[in-house]
Structure formats: structure tokens, C-alpha cells
User: What shape does this take?
Amino acid sequence: MKLLAVTVSLGAALLVTMTAPSYAGGGDAIFKKNCASCHYTDGPAKEKTIADQLAKKGPELFYAGSKFQKGWLAAWLQDPKPIRPMKYNSLTEKNAGDHPKSSAGDAAALTDYLMGLTSAKVAAGKIKAKSTPQARNIFAKKMPCSGCHQTESKGDVSGGLSGPSLVGAGKRLNPDWVYAYLTDVKSFKPVRDMPDFSKAMSPKDMEGLAAYIATFE
Amino acid sequence: MSRFVIMITMALGLALSAAGSAQAADDAKQVFDFYCAQCHGEKGDGKGINVTKSFSTDPRNFTVTADMEKRSDDDIRTVIKDGGPAISKSPLMPPWGATLSDAEVDGLLAHIRKLCKCTAK
Assistant: This one.
């Protein structure tokens, strides 16, 4: 009986020592230590008022695994170039490009952790990159997308500055997430300075836009 | 005595409603700064940060009284909710109807009327 207890506790101790180091080096622990002061990862979205949104120091990441492409995320965490032309939540200050940098090892662990944070509201494997005349017309003319988002055409970057730049969005964003975001914006960002287009466009138009954005270089 | 009570009640009521409308004005200013200032600028002069050289139509400058008094309150509500094309203006003015409540739209209308120091002619 006593022997059994000793064996069990020894076994438990062994288990702890075996898993502890990998946990300490695990992405979630690194995240808690270095990232959680600015990003929340427990959904659903918490913001109810403009003040709630303005109090945030960084974007919510509770659906990061559905939003980003893995290769982009691992590289960006090591070399975080500005995504938003302006400082987060500011319409006056430029983005200083001062996001914390992670080592290659930390970035890999953080990427594994963040890619595990997926959203059931994003249907996987639905949208494939495709540029159609309809979608190009909606993005550039029929709808105000270009008024708030930068894009690149033949080396020329143009467009508004209040939204995240969509230059390179084809490598950064998961098109299935873009579609989910356009059709159901409130589930991801209940308070944001981008309009909810759900009454202004059909789901089909949004599918075309998501596929088009996936071609952005 | 009853006179006194009535007077106090009236004074209180007045103070409260003044505080209420000051609160509403603050709220409208916050809504304006968050959603509209990106293009129209915090001062409403049409010089928001999105207005770069590729921005094909200048956002409305709300401080120009002569332009703004030509717009009815209904036109202003409509263009906020349904976007520029709803009053034959540029599609760069987005439709905010699915984002803002009717009360927020009314607050914006009041804020814009304050910026132009005008009413509809």
C-alpha cells in the first residue's frame, strides 16, 4: 500500500519534471509573460463601447489561428514591420514600428500557441485566391475600401491610412477569415471604425472580395 | 412651502436636463471622432488622415456654412446611414447604417449642425 503511494507520487513527480520544461518554454507561457499586457486571447470579443476599444493596447488575438497564415506569423514575430500605417487607435500619430521582437525560438513557440486559437465562426477551405473584374470594381469603385486601406499596384502603394494596410494581405491573412470577418464583423470586432457592410453587400460579393484580397501582394 | 418645493424641483430638473444634453454632445463628439474624423477630420474640415493624393473626392468640409445649409436633416441622416450614392455623392462615403444606432446618427446630425453653425435652409 505504502509502496503504491510512493510509486504513484514518484510517477507524478516524474511526469511534472518531464512536462514542466516544455511547458515553461511553451508559447502560452511566453505569451502570458511578454504579450498578454497588450493582447487578450480569451474570446468572445469583450468590447462594448468606443471607450472599451480605445482602452486596448493591441488587437485581440483570440482567433489568431483562423486569421493569420502560419508562415507569415512566425516571420513577423521576429521582424514585426508595421501593419497599420497609424499607431494603434490613433488618427494622429504614425505607427512607430516598435512592436516587441521575438527570438526565432520564442517566435516558433508563440506561433504554435497562437495558431491553436481558432474560431468556430470561420469555415475552413471555402475561399480560394481569385481576382475577378466584379471584385476589383467593388473594392476600388463601388465601395469605399480603398479610402481606408492601402494596396500596392506595380510598386505603387496608395489608399487610406486608418485601416490596416492590405499590402501583402495574400500572404498574411487567411481568406476564409476575411470572408467571415466581412459577413459577421461584430463577432470579431464589435467596435471598430470600419463599417459593417452586411446590409450594403451580398455574401456573394463578400466572397469575391475575400478571394480578391487573397491575391494582394 | 409648496411654491418652494416646485421651484427647487424645477431648478433640479433644469440642471439635470442641461447635464443630459451636455452628456449627449460629448457622446456625439466621441462617435464623430471615432468614425467620421478618419476622413472628415476632428474639426470637420474634411482633412482627415485618409485624405491622401489617391483620395478621389474631397470629404465634405462641415465648417462651410453655405454648403451645409443646402442639406436637409433627412439628407444628412440618409447619407450617414446609406452612404454617398444614396444622395448622388461619392461611394467613398461609406454606409454606416448597420454600424450606428438611430440615436447615434441623430447625435452626429446635431454635431454636424454645430460645426456648420447652420440649420437647413
